[in-house]
Amino acid sequence: MNQMVSQSLAGVGFPIAFVLVAGALWFALFRRHARVRAIGIGWIVAGGIGLAYLLAFGGFTFPPRESGHWIPYLAGGAALIGCFQFWGLRPIWSLGISLFTAVVFFWAQLLGNLQVLLWVLAFTAVLFVSAILLQQIIEDRCSGAELSLGLALSAGAGGIGIFLGGSAVLGQISGTLGLVLGVVAVLAFVWNTTVGPIVPLIYVLIFDSLLLNGCLFAQLPWLTAVLLWIAPWALLFGQRADHPKVSRRLGSLCLRIIGVVTMVAIALVSAFLLAPPSSEM
Amino acid sequence: MKKHYLSLLLSVLALAGTTIAQADTFKIDPVHSAIIFKIGHFGVGHVYGRFDTFSGTFTFDQSDPSKDAANVEIKTDSVDTNFPDRDKHIKSPDFFNAAQYPTATFKSTAVKKVDDKTYEVTGDFTLRGVTKPLTLNLQVIGTGPGPKGETRMGWEGAATLKRSEFDVKTFLPAVTDDVDLIIAAEGIKQ
User: How many Å apart are CA A85 and CA A50, to the nearest integer?
Assistant: First the structure.
């Protein structure tokens, strides 16, 4: 077990360390430049996901042959699209990359099977609605710490759910995504800044892809996936807390996150009930 | 005496019915065949598993091995390691990704006769969408009539593959890269 535990720890630890160091430097350097800060943090998070994938799977597969292979490319693509969104037409870009991600999932079945088109449209709608909600509505109403922490809790719980569903590696990537976003939440709290709209776009594409992978190709319960998908929407309620006093911000953060924690807890209970842990090792 | 000649005649006729003509095709009988694998576990033991659902054919020509061939299709979600939770994990994207790749296949490309009973069958093995050459070392067990008078032929053999070559890299090296295959196939002449 030591060898596997150390491999898993490395697979999680290195991406977190990278995001912590690079993110701290970036926040410190561009604290007052919101757009540059958002772009940099987006690329740092994408880099963290890429590193997590590299360590979990032992390399990138190019050209990608299955939906899971697209994860690091989607992370980079989301960061790139996020940059373009600063020049306007944000919904169009979000719709475009949502459709691309959906097609990637169902490409092999799409040819000659029109029913699969419904799946493509449904998944596109899921991604697009999530992107609009998180990027435009929730991001405006949250501090960087509140948004990142909400997403971190959902992704972290997703790691547990996907692991219980039968995929340890995808669970590790989701868990690492959660921890990376947790690091971003801490940094955003310390510097009392926003994280911008690119981080939520990366979260939507990567986490929703992981959830769909878990449901379609492992045995993640659909109920758990839906609950985790909507958990961050609890951040719709409330207002951003930018108070300079740390204790006040901390209190507001805790209050704000209660809704997300509740949804995540219900999702985890459903995962444990519907896909109980095993002892195969 | 007449009874003796009669039984002799019947034996000759029965034998004639079960001889292998040139390039006969056999359909694999899964009820009397097995595909088993063995993989190392933390350097202290082996885990065995099998595939419960597979199908295929093989062609055998005693006088011309170049006409021999084998085609096998294995349902990846039929993997059975005697522990359902582990089977669930093996079917997941961590290993076989059975939902996206429901079959693994072997299609022979060359057959080399080593001696009267031993053959090396090389072919393309496809697992998880990746195709790599694989050589099976097979031995003829025998040929003869089955319970319903059909002609049967049986083989047994082994091969070793590296799962990392097929993009199955999870838990390396704690769970070994080398996977030993044991194949026992009995076919019914078509």
Answer: 22
Spell out the domains of chain B, with CATH numbers in brackets.
21-189 (2.40.128.110)
CA pair distance B5, B109, nearest whole angstrom: 47
Instruction: Write out the H or E segment, with its range, that includes residue B13.
Output: helix B2-18
Contact indicator for A54, A48 with CB cutoff of 8 Å: no
Helix (H, G, I), strand (E, B) or coil at A114: coil
Q: Do A66 and B100 touch (CB under 8 A)?
A: yes
Structure ipTM over 0.95, yes or no: no
Cβ separation of A280 and B89 shorter than 8 Å? yes
Residue A136 CB neighbour total at 10 angstroms: 14
Could you tell me the two tokens for B123?
A: 């072919």
Rounded to a whole number of angstroms, the distance from the CA of B122 to the nearest CA of chain A is 25
Flag if B86 and A280 touch (Cβ within 8 Å).
yes
Rounded to 10 degrees, the C-alpha dihedral A231/A236/A239/A242 comes to 50
Chain A, residues 73-132, CB within 8 A of chain B, namely 108
B99 chain-A contacts, CB cut-off 8 A: 216-217
**Could you read off the pLDDT of A210-224 as tens digits, one per residue?**
999 999 888 899 999
Nearest to B173 by CA among B35, B1, B57, B43: B43
Residue A139 and residue B16: Cα distance in Å, rounded?
83
Q: What is the pLDDT of residues B73-105, one digit of tens each?
A: 999 999 999 999 899 999 999 999 998 899 999
Q: Per this entry, what is the length of chain A?
A: 281
